[in-house]
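Researcher: Next sequence.
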Amino acid sequence: MKTNHCPRCHHELDEGPIVYRCAHCRRAVYAADLENEYVPRQPVAA
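Model: Next structure:
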């Protein structure tokens, strides 16, 4: 699992998955504002 980091102070974010919180600077960051890479699953033969 990839950890997300605060865009302001670059410390690790906790909670989620919609709103993450930075314990260091007490900032709330929405998941939509983070750069997350979507990796689709491999196709499965039926």
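Model: The mean pLDDT is 81. DSSP finds no helices and three strands in the chain.
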